[in-house]
Known about the structure:
Elements: E1 16-22, E2 29-35, E3 41-47, E4 54-55, E5 68-69, E6 71-75, H1 84-94, E7 99-100, E8 107-108, E9 113-115, H2 131-139, E10 157-158, E11 161-162, E12 164-171, E13 177-184, H3 217-226, E14 239-244, H4 250-267, E15 279-284, H5 293-317, H6 327-330
Amino acid sequence: xxxxxxxxxxxxxxxxxxxxxxxxxxxxxxxxxxxxxxxxxxxxxxxxxxxxxxxxxxxxxxxxxxxxxxxxxxxxxxxxxxxxxxxxxxxxxxxxxxxxxxxxxxxxxxxxxxxxxxxxxxxxxxxxxxxxxxxxxxxxxxxxxxxxxxxxxxxxxxxxxxxxxxxxxxxxxxxxxxxxxxxxxxxxxxxxxxxxxxxxxxxxxxxxxxxxxxxxxxxxxxxxxxxxxxxxxxxxxxxxxxxxxxxxxxxxxxxxxxxxxxxxxxxxxxxxxxxxxxxxxxxxxxxxxxxxxxxxxxxxxxxxxxxxxxxxxxxxxxxxxxxxxxxxxxxxxxxx
Length: 336
């Protein structure tokens, strides 16, 4: 297994990503759109956190009618940020993309969404992504490989450090491509408090990260203090999308999402807490044929690894803001 050409979810044929954010006075939040091909992609979801905020996840239940979704929206702003999906749905409708309902142009875009909590991190508690920001992210969608504090990761925090958006991909020996994009915003930490090392670093492939060492004891002490959880101080949630070019059923997509959470669990501790709404979606673009059971097993393994690697890349790309330091600024000695 090796990374795809750009080591991003957009290595999966037909997948595009758009980010939009606001960082002006009082704002530190944003929205990320993962676009399927115009005909949609088969979708699945798995919600593990105790405090989720989602839209149209029931449509992804394998027992229900609609097979394909046209976009997935990941947004800051807690429940207020679900409004960003309205802008994406309207933009898809205006482009004639959606579930066909009759005559040309009579479509209903299927746009599942999940949000993370970043309210107040820019200074004004009620500032959250809206439909206009969602439409802006849709308009910006392309073969994006952006990392760090962009889109849904703009106001992200993980433990006592800045979080952000990370992405990674893998090409399997049989040619299957798998990718993941994660907005890392967790109550738990991505850093081992005993050593200062990223939990996820050991699972990364060559080229994912710069060479990392252990930070100094003093840097580690300060970081531990910053990560202390105080009652009422934090809510969080890590959200993301996994994609593959294989042909999968809705049930298989849901299984991929579930295994993807194993990738989160390797990278964040604790994970799936009552203060996190951790949610992962899966999109299958069906460019390649259906896998046999052994190929599907390999796809599941790669999906979990891509999620773990995406978390690591998010943490290394994040930048300090709003009094929250990035991994790079907190542990400069780890980067030599």
